[in-house]
Each structure stands twice: as C-alpha cells, then as structure tokens.
Amino acid sequence: MATSSPVPKVRDLPVPAGFDMRDHVSGIGAHLAGPANVIMQLSWPGVGYGVMNSRVHDGAATKRPFKRGRTTFTYLAVALLGTDEDRAAFRKEVNRQHAQVVSRPGEKVQYRAMDPRLQTWVAACLYHGTVDMIEKMHGPLPDAEADALYAHCARFGTTLQMPADAWPPDRAAFRRYWQEAEAEVAIDPAVASYLLSLTRLQNFPPPLRLLAPFVLFVTTGFLPPLFRDAMGLPWTARQQRRFDRLLRTLGAVERRLPRVLRSFPFNLWLADMRLRRRFRRPLV
To answer: Where is the ER-bound oxygenase mpaB/mpaB'/Rubber oxygenase catalytic domain (predicted)?
Structure first.
C-alpha cells in the first residue's frame, strides 16, 4: 500500500491576488508610531521583561540603539515586503538571537523569546499599529483592502515562530482576540521606567535628545488609552487636536510622494539585507 507524503505545514495565510503591500508601507508613519508600538508590545510582562533583561547585549536598544533600529526596520521590511527566501534566511538569524533570551530561575517574570504565544501578541501589536497609523494619516481602508492587509500582516508573526493558525481568521476574530489580550496588559514601574528612557531618547547621543519632547508627544498620541494609562502618561483634548492635525498634514504630504519615497527606509533595509546575504555578512 502506498503511503501518502506528509502535508506541508502552511506558513502563511493566503492573500488576495492583486494586493500590493507596498501601497501601505509608510516610512514616515513607522518612525512616528514605532515607539508607541514598542510600549504596546512590552506591556505584556513576558515580552517586557524578556526585552529589558535580555542577555543579547550586542543588539540591545539601550547599548546599541542604531543597530537595534536597523535590525528592527529590517525585520519589518522582510516580513512585509520580502520573499519566502528572504524571510527564511532572516528567521534563521533571529532564532539564533532569540534562543538566548530565556528567563533565569527565580526571575520575577518567566519568559522565552521563542514562545509562539508571545510572538502572536507582538504580531498583533504590529498589525494594530499599522492599521491605526494608516487610518490616522489617510482614513479608513475599504473592507476588501482591509481584509487583504489583515491576512498579509500575519507575516509579522509567521516570519518567526507563530503558526498561521494562531492568527485570528478574520478582522472580527482579531477584535475579540485583542479585547481578551488587553486583560494581560500590566506595565510595572521597572518596565515603565525602561520604556520612558527609550521614549525620551536617553539611549541616544545628546544632540538627538533634543527631539525627545516631540517623540514623547507623538508616542503618547499613538498609544490607545489603556496603554497610555498603564504608562501614567497624561493626555489632553488640546493635545489630541494637535496630534490629529499633525497626522492629517503628514498624510497629505505622503500621498503626494512617489511610492519609492513613501516606502523609505523599508526598501533600503530590504536591499541591505539582501546584500548582507550575498556577501555572507551578519543579518542581525
């Protein structure tokens, strides 16, 4: 009797034909919304303590912020715009780093960077932030486009260890997942202090710290109220109006840019990763 060959495991969710992620990648938006998304991701204690206490110092945001920025943007570029081959190569390199991020016995919070459940939360934050940024800058997407974007953004997690079936099957299911996941948001004083130091650019050279008030303002604006309150960040109606005007103005500017500029620096970091692969240089 012939034996059937094993069915290959599905890595990604199907995305409707004709959908082009390049139409939705925003370098301006990513730079503005990125710090808030980091806070959201680290609001789960397993992620927060895993990042804060990581023993992989050569890529730590507090010690090497420019390298951390490069690897983060490269990961996002590979996840959203890369080929299957790109993502497999980058996954291998990130796994090597993540394998070292494991809590020690007796630590306050237990964590493991390779945990698919934590990675699903991180992917959910990245998707939530992507949609939020698009809507604040350009308005809501049509339903068909929003559904395609949702399916594509599963790659935020499947590029690492998150199985495809861990991603909620549609946007309605995602909203239910998000509501349940918010119950696990808990930012203690140690993690809040760590996150505020990053938001205030204390890990960067002094000249760049002049931008800290603007970064704190934009970061607070992008944070949903639950996360803003967990961080103890005040926010007024006047600040909300200023924030809304800023995002609408930047959105209007971005819509007039050619796609190659709208996609910068994601296109740059994807090209850089491919050159690093070609010349056998470290990817992370």
So the answer is: 27-251
Give residues with Cβ within 8 angstroms of 3, minimum separation 6.
Answer: none
Which amino acid, 95?
N
CA angle 203/206/207 to nearest 5° reads: 125
Q: Assess contact for 164 and 12: CB atoms under 8 A.
A: yes
Contacts 24+ apart (CB under 8 A), 226-232: 226/182, 226/185, 227/36, 227/39, 227/40, 227/43, 227/185, 227/187, 230/43, 230/185, 230/186, 230/187, 230/192, 231/39, 231/187, 231/192, 231/195, 231/196, 232/192
Residue-level pLDDT, tens digit, the chain, 284 residues: 444 444 345 567 788 888 999 999 999 999 999 999 999 999 999 999 999 988 777 767 888 888 889 999 999 999 999 999 999 999 999 998 888 889 888 888 889 889 999 999 999 999 999 999 999 999 999 999 999 999 999 999 999 999 999 999 999 999 999 999 999 999 999 999 999 999 999 999 999 999 999 999 999 999 999 999 999 999 999 999 999 999 999 999 999 999 999 999 999 999 999 999 999 898 88
Ordered alpha helix ranges (H), 139-236: 143-152, 155-158, 171-181, 189-199, 212-222, 225-231
Q: Counting every residue, how long is the chain? A: 284
